[in-house]
Amino acid sequence: MPRVKRGTHRVKRRKKYLQATKGYMWGRKSKITLMIPAVLKAGAHAYVDRRRKKREFRALWNIRVNAAAREEGMKYSTLIAALHKKGIALDRKVLSTLAIEYPQVFSKIVMSVK
């Protein structure tokens, strides 16, 4: 069986990990045996947190819409149900933005579904 030395491939691989671990501390930024698990774990956390971010933003929008709806004398769940019943297709992100940046428009929407 021929000997495989992996000259350029090894250098490319190490360069890739060096770039990925820029900013890490101690051996995790310079030693290949510590770099690889650090990069893999960071990637796993990034994957999970990209999904968690969506969850947290939706919860934030719900809280904002609920607070604005209660100022208008209506609960969040009642508002959402009334919007669905009336056929007004505004998602929670848009409602949240309206509640914060355009409160008059939000109050008109609430009045239209009361």
Description:
- Binds directly to 23S ribosomal RNA and is necessary for the in vitro assembly process of the 50S ribosomal subunit. It is not involved in the protein synthesizing functions of that subunit.
- Keywords: Ribonucleoprotein, Ribosomal protein, RNA-binding, rRNA-binding.
- This is Large ribosomal subunit protein bL20.
- InterPro entries: Ribosomal_bL20, RIBOSOMAL_L20_CS, Ribosomal_protein_bL20_C.
- By secondary structure, the protein is an all-alpha fold.
- 75% of the residues lie in helices and 0% in strands.
- The chain has one domain (7-113): c-terminal domain of poly(a) binding protein (Orthogonal Bundle), CATH 1.10.1900.20.
- It has helices at residues 7-20, 32-71, 76-86, 92-101, 103-113.
- The protein is rod-shaped.
- The mean pLDDT is 95.
Q: Distance between termini?
A: 80 Å
Shape: rod-shaped
At CATH level 2, the architecture is Orthogonal Bundle
What are the low-pLDDT stretches, counting only 5+ consecutive residues below 50? none
SSE series? HHHHH
Which bin fits the share of residues in helices? over 70%
GO molecular function, one term: structural constituent of ribosome
Keywords: Ribonucleoprotein, Ribosomal protein, RNA-binding, rRNA-binding
InterPro entries: Ribosomal_bL20 (IPR005813), RIBOSOMAL_L20_CS (IPR049946), Ribosomal_protein_bL20_C (IPR035566)
Protein name: Large ribosomal subunit protein bL20
Which descriptors would you attach to this protein?
114 residues, mainly alpha, c-terminal domain of poly(a) binding protein
